[in-house]
Amino acid sequence: MQTVANRLVSAMIKFAKILWRAIPISYERSCRFYPSCADYASMCVQRYRFPKSLLKILWRILRCNPFSQGGVDFP
Question: Which residues of 28-54 are buried (b: 16+ CB within 10 A; e: fewer)?
Answer without folding.
Answer: eeebebebbbbbbbbbbbeebebeebb
